[in-house]
Amino acid sequence: MAENEMGLTVKKDEDFSEWYTQILNKADLSDIRFGIQGFIVQKPWAYMIIRKIYDYLEKEVEMQGHLPYRFPTVVKEKDLMKEEEHAGFTPEVFWVSEAGDKKIEERFALRPTGEAQIYPMYSLWFRSYRDLPFLAYQSRNSVFRNEMTTRPFIRGREFMFFESHNVYNEHQEALDQIKKDLETCDEVIKKKAKIPFYYFKRPQWDKFLGADDTFTPDTVMPDGKRNQLGSTHDLGTNFAKAYDIKIRAKDGKQQLAFQTCFGPGIWRIFAAMVGIHGDDNGLVLPFDFAPVQVVIVPIIFSKKKELTEKVLTMCKKLETDIRKMGYKVKLDDRDYESPGAKYNHWELKGVPMRLEVGPKEVDEKVVSLKLRTGGDKEKVNVSDLKKVIGSKALELDKEIEVRAQKYFKGNVREAKTLKELVKIMKEHRGFVKVPFCSVEMDGEKCEEEMKAETQGGRVCGTLYPKEDKVAKGQKCMVCGKEAKHMVYIAKSY
RNA sequence: GGGAUUGUGGGGUAAUUUGGCUAUCCUUCCGGCUUUGGGAGCCGGCGAUCCCGGUUCAAAUCCGGGCAGUCCCA
Hints:
The protein is an alpha+beta fold. It has three domains: 15-277, Bira Bifunctional Protein, Domain 2 (BirA Bifunctional Protein, domain 2); 292-392, 3-Layer(aba) Sandwich (Rossmann fold), CATH 3.40.50.800; 412-490, Translation Initiation Factor IF3 (2-Layer Sandwich). It has 14 helices and 24 strands. The strands form five sheets. Strands 3, 7, 8, 9, 10, 11, 12, 15, 21, 22, 23 and 24 form a twelve-stranded mixed β-sheet that branches. The chain has a five-stranded mixed β-sheet with strand order 17-16-18-19-20, with helices on both faces. The chain has a three-stranded antiparallel β-sheet with strand order 4-6-5. Helix 3 packs antiparallel against helix 6 (171-192), helix 3 packs across helix 8 and helix 4 (77-87) packs across helix 5 (115-125). It binds one RNA strand through helix 1, helix 2 and helix 10.
């Protein structure tokens, strides 16, 4: 009877929007009642998962030689304006223009992404080709004055961010780094978080302003909308020109430095994990991301003291042993909740593995094990536990991965004509692969027409690094000219 | 950025149309008894009309403004 209030009351397939809102609340992931538009509180269960995403990313890029640093929370107006003058891009920001009751003469902004605050320093730091390459990153939040509808962890005015900003002598080094950024996304987002995605090269009209090329890992959410999980940019020497990042080359001449920047959207990755892996009972988490990996639920009886003692003694020993094995374990020995209530609670939170221990288990020296992804309860000998937790963790991860891949594949379709595309997007959304004339600037007008016809479909780009082949004689689905590329269309957040 | 809609205990709601008595019910939470192998039961208790202004004898209810949320569409 309490089911209606405590568990999820909608099915993910039937109303994803409502499901998403409910799970954020009921799994205790965020609190949207902070009271300033677009700013939310990340509660412990969410933040522990988010921190894990950071851990993996930081480890990956540090292995590539990136150094950590931390820039201030603010950025000078003059430096922001440079970005606009040279790249034509100024994000909407919050201005700091008063301190106490005094006006600040030269106002400054709460920082959006780091280019405008980092590159002026880079201009001071590098003098010689010997100073390069320079690879560094920071993990921190980003603030925009975003007037659009906000959605927790997907679009807000403040969000958790990660950015690397690299400087090179040669353009080839920049291109190599783009590939490494792709590998980083593969490693963390695909392999660890089990989120399938496409790596796109964005069309020229939709790249990061000031970049020569933009690449993005994009996935699709259960409501069929594209979720851009990050981006990496080949900046060429554009920003070096704007921010005066010059080095003395081997031959003695001054030259502009080449740059890349890479920014996985931490919250977007989190939102994808919640939305794609979760089910009608709650969160489903890959084993390594779970704040609690193994929960022990004792079956206890208030009337039978001795029996309860016996059960709890075994549970406490299990807890200690499992912790020693290196797993994050929790013994839920609350005596005022029924076992059923506990099962539902921890399933809502996405704990991967549950061990039940009652009098029967104590006598047989076993535990009953149940996986979050389903299947029957299994009895496991206590002496085999270490081995079994390890193998069950792999089994769970595999199951999550297979489900996610199947889901992703089911959200990719093909269309040859605009009419077909319109029909598909009306019914399914997701990614649709289509023949398209051009991803250079001359293709933009075809996108506009397609966007109007499909009510918001956008060209995500071409697959990278390996573009789809275009069959002979394929025509652009919009203008009918020869199709030079196969591109993917999707609506986005 | 466009449109729609909402704001009542921690969460979900009734009363709002037609202003009026002690603001309804469910749940959570707290205390007690009892119970525990898939969301137990009974008894008792705490707890609310988003903010500012206006109209009125009287405002959760009507009017104006603000703040915030949700949904649909770009």
